[in-house]
Design brief:
Pfam families: HGTP_anticodon, tRNA-synt_2b. With 485 residues, the protein is of the alpha+beta class. It is 33% helix and 29% strand. The protein has three domains: 3-71 and 161-368, BirA Bifunctional Protein, domain 2 (2-Layer Sandwich); 82-143, Herpes Virus-1 (2-Layer Sandwich); 382-481, Rossmann fold (3-Layer(aba) Sandwich). The strands form seven sheets. It has a nine-stranded mixed β-sheet with strand order 3-10-11-19-16-15-14-12-13, sandwiched between helices. A five-stranded mixed β-sheet has the order 23-22-24-25-26, sandwiched between helices. It starts with a helix and ends with a helix. It binds one RNA strand of 77 nucleotides through α1, β5, β6 and α14.
RNA sequence: GCGGUCAUAGUAUAGCCUGGUUAGUAUUCGGGGUUUCCAACCCUGUGACGCGGGUUCGAAUCCCGCUGACCGCACCA
């Protein structure tokens, strides 16, 4: 199924839709989750907690979205999270200053150079607009962070462009008060904000978006000293080497030095196990090792976890070895101590991060789960039962003869424990189809036989098969079928 | 941000060129009937011209601006 089909489903079934859509000044890059979307997102996050946080004994925090200017001076975002741009005075086209200079003169100016250096080269080498041969105005910086003004004086602060900065600045307190030991994973789910030049494709490039970030603090001298590596050493991961994807076990990847150490391999291993359980088709996924110039300004080694969708390959998780970039930056700027003890050794921990885009992940789950069942003339969203916004539909076959009342009675019994959708009206087939489209894995139907022997039919979404079960066993059966793995 | 295409009910569309209709159709949705398990059928109801300005006696329709969407370019920590 294609992007357009997912989009249509999202609009019609309440997964997501544009923010502020009744107003004409609504800006691009902002989307709301509807009821079905919230259900899916909450369950996805619960799976993330189970498969990554609890599995690895990580701890979780929830930081502010607005952070002070110093944080981003120390993190490098004020200087580096910005592009030098020039604009043609004639045709108004905008270009990256460093790119246009390289193209025209082969002169490489680092992105971080002063703006006057770009202007100087443009003037000296007489660089003109490639489209219309017009002159460029002076070079400007476009920073992708949203600035906010705090209090009546409008003190300078920023909406965070990534959630992890609060983890870094909170690290000294957390390590002390939570009795931390390296390696220690600290995680956070929350919103981040980036003033994208061209947001596009709904959930795939947003200006306000959810991240689930994990920062694992470690002793750089002990990256192969990891007992739990045995848990995933035989887990297969697809890894792209020299433009070719090879499937190998984590152990093979480490032995062949494609992945630098057991520590990194462990987290790539548990990450792919998580995504498989989330219902992403991992046959269509890869870890792509980034080349030098593709990496973020803070990353030493980086693997992107990417999946294939109908819009092309899509980056879901950036796995960056950030070394001590962040902690030393904050230590210098804040004059606080960020070193900790690891056994008898005092170390400034290094950081390996798994920076996950939740919105993109949810989109991919939808696209990989949506299918057209032509034989039965229906659209089915085959979500994992534990991720479905609705666990079970409760339907009366017909409204009369006391069936509606009996149906209500059963609904009341299970509605607190499960996400249940009660429906009395319309043809039964239509009601089943509707549930198929929001991904409800099960439906129970109350019919005349129910009144006689207290049994109901249980319908399976994917096969459309039905079993007769006792109402007294309903809770036990649903509990098993909708449980997290 | 640039260029191209486009914008009508929840969704998909007709009408626009050649200005005047009760803005049509399909599907969805609500109510009722029928039907004893897979989008059937019958009755009935709700629901739309993105926003702002201009031309005109009159604008969904023509013109301008804005906003958004899609595609390509550039960008993507």
């Amino acid at each position: 199924m294609k992007y357009d089909d997912v989009m249509k489903l999202a609009l019609e079934r309440g997964f997501y839709f544009p923010s502020c859509e009744v107003y004409s000044d609504a800006q691009a890059g902002f989307w709301e989750y509807g009821p079905a979307g919230v259900g899916l997102k909450n369950k996805f996050i619960e799976l993330w907690r189970r498969e990554l946080i609890r599995r690895d004994k990580m701890i979780e925090v929830d930081g502010s979205q607005i952070m002070s200017k110093s944080v981003f001076e120390a993190s490098g975002h004020l200087a580096s999270f910005a592009d030098p741009i020039v604009r043609c005075t004639k045709c108004k086209s905008t270009y990256r200053a460093d790119k246009i200079i390289v193209d025209a003169t082969k002169t490489v100016i680092p992105e971080s150079a002063g703006l006057d250096e770009f202007d100087k080269v443009i003037t000296e080498k007489n660089v003109k607009c490639p489209k219309c041969n017009g002159d460029f105005g002076s070079t400007k910086k476009f920073n992708m962070m949203f600035q906010v003004g705090i209090g009546p004086e409008g003190e300078e602060a920023y909406l965070r462009p990534e959630t992890c900065q609060s983890i870094f600045v909170d690290f000294p307190r957390l390590f002390k008060t939570m009795r931390g030991k390296l390696p220690l994973g600290i995680a956070q789910i929350g919103k981040s904000f980036r003033n994208e030049i061209a947001p596009r494709q709904s959930l795939l490039r947003l200006r306000e978006f959810y991240q689930a970030e994990i920062e694992v603090f470690c002793n750089p001298a002990r990256l192969n000293d990891l007992d739990k590596f045995s848990e995933i050493e035989n887990t297969k991961i697809p890894i792209q080497v020299d433009n070719e994807v090879k499937i190998m076990t984590c152990k093979e990847a480490v032995d062949s030095k494609i992945i630098p150490n057991k520590f990194v391999a462990y987290y790539l291993g548990i990450l792919i196990e998580f995504y498989e359980k989330a219902g992403i088709d991992i046959q269509k996924s890869r870890f792509r090792k980034l080349e030098e110039k593709e990496k973020a300004f803070y990353a030493e080694v980086a693997f992107d976890f990417e999946v294939e969708t109908t819009t092309g390959w899509l980056e879901l998780v950036a796995c960056n070895y950030r070394a001590d970039y962040d902690l030393s930056g904050h230590a210098t700027k804040s004059k606080e101590k960020f070193e900790v003890m690891d056994n008898d050794e005092k170390v400034l921990p290094h950081v390996f991060e798994l920076s996950m885009g939740i919105d993109r992940s949810l989109y991919t789950i939808l696209e990989h789960s949506l299918r057209e069942d032509k034989e039965n003339d229906r659209t089915v969203l085959s979500l994992k039962p534990y991720l479905s916004p609705i666990h079970v539909g409760v339907l009366s076959l017909v409204k009369k003869d006391g069936l509606a009342e009996k149906t209500d009675e059963i609904y009341l019994k299970i509605k607190r424990k499960y996400d249940v959708f009660l429906d009395h009206s319309g043809a039964i087939g239509r009601r089943y189809r509707r549930l198929d489209e929001v991904g409800a894995p099960y439906a129970i139907t109350i019919d005349h036989q129910t009144l006689q022997d207290d049994t109901v039919t249980l319908r399976m979404r994917d096969s459309m098969e039905q079993n007769r079960i006792k109402v007294s066993e309903l809770d036990e059966i649903l509990s098993k079928k909708t449980a997290f793995p």
